[in-house]
Design goal:
This protein is of the alpha/beta class and 331 residues long. Helices cover 35% and strands 16% of the residues. The protein has 2 domains: 181 residues, 3-Layer(aba) Sandwich (D-Maltodextrin-Binding Protein, domain 2), CATH 3.40.190.10; 95 residues, D-Maltodextrin-Binding Protein, domain 2, CATH 3.40.190. The strands form 2 sheets. A 5-stranded mixed beta sheet has the order 2-1-3-10-4, sandwiched between helices. Strands 7-6-8-5-9 form a 5-stranded mixed beta sheet. Helix 5 links the parallel strand 6 and strand 7.
């Protein structure tokens, strides 16, 4: 069950004289998962909250590392990356769920007659991205459909999608609200298996996290930032077309395909990824958080600071909080 939080209709603002500079690290090049930050920036909501916010460009150093080491106060984080780093002692706390449900899916060429169910993937070739999560995820999906969970992997990164399109590989994973949308725009028919249909827990795949020490030392600034960001994501959920235009404008030419940005925003909103009915944008579901942690633990993915596999399921109650933002379902 999700913990509902007290209602407050306005963002907490810091006094003008207390304006504080904060940095936010991105987990990838700008895309629609980041839209709330850019909306809040463009609308002046960070400034109204007494904050000067710098959105850092994506680098080879992960956003989780930048947040955990205090280089950035906040960052957009992948769920699996966060869990892995937090299990090893990283100083991070999740403060907002960017998406409410799993956006990933296992995809293959829509014209393949020999793939009708996950068990058919046994012995086939997967185009991967080099994480332990992928092996656990895909083998679970196949085994839960009655297969052995045995497949070949070639690590291709973002080249996986071209390899899938030209038939060099049999299947891969994608974010349905980005690569999935792009496959439609490129007229590349695909079919997909949803993780949750084959025993993999639903999760918030993208998170906003903060440096744990900084959060404790700066509760007012943290609350001001999170509420302004939440306001940005709420605006995007209610106004996807305008939010897409803002994202394109704010990233100064980095978004080379406006049609993709607009279609992705539609997918996020119409798919119910940004907001569950009757609940605020950004709300973290504690049950989902525990369930995906247990899955990662049982798969042997979570390791301590010395690289040893965890032997006990961690208590994740301190890994996230809904305390910084406000309950609002529109506006």
């Amino acid at each position: 069950m999700k913990h509902l939080i007290g209602a407050a209709l306005l963002c907490v603002s810091l006094p003008a004289w207390a304006q504080e500079r904060l940095t936010v690290a991105l987990d990838w090049t700008p895309n629609t998962n980041h839209v709330g930050l850019y909306v809040a920036q463009a609308k002046g909501w960070f400034e109204d909250a007494g904050l000067a916010v710098d959105i850092l460009p994506y680098t080879d150093t992960s956003s989780g590392t930048l947040v955990a080491t205090g280089v950035a106060e906040f960052g957009i984080l992948s769920a699996v990356g966060f869990h892995s780093q937090r299990a090893s002692g990283a100083d991070m706390t999740v403060v907002l769920a960017v998406v409410q449900h799993e956006t990933g899916r296992l995809v293959f060429n829509g014209e393949r007659e020999d793939i009708q169910r996950p068990a058919d993937l046994d012995g086939m070739t997967y185009a991967g991205f080099g994480s332990a999560w992928e092996e656990a995820l895909i083998s679970t999906i196949i085994r839960n459909d009655g297969g052995e969970g045995v497949f070949d992997t070639v690590t291709l990164g973002t080249s996986a999608y071209e390899a899938l399109a030209n038939g060099s590989v049999d299947f891969t994973l994608e974010v349905s609200t980005w690569e999935g949308v792009n496959s439609v725009l490129l007229d590349r028919p695909q079919r997909a298996f949803r993780y949750a249909d084959f025993g993999v827990p639903d999760q918030h795949t993208t998170l906003l996290g903060g440096n744990g020490t900084w959060l404790k030392q700066n509760p007012d600034a943290a609350r001001a930032f999170v509420q302004a960001a939440q306001r940005g994501y709420q605006f995007a959920a209610n106004n996807p077309a305008e939010a897409a235009d803002i994202l394109i404008a704010e990233t100064a030419g980095m978004m080379s395909n406006p049609d993709l940005v607009h279609a992705s925003m539609v997918a996020l909103v119409e798919g119910g990824f940004l907001q569950d009915p009757g609940e605020p944008v950004g709300l973290i579901d504690d049950e989902m958080f525990v369930n995906i942690t247990q899955f990662l633990f049982e798969a042997g993915i979570l390791r301590d600071e010395d690289g040893r596999q965890l032997t006990e399921l961690p208590d994740v109650s301190s890994w996230f909080t809904n305390d910084y933002f406000y309950f609002q379902t529109d506006g």
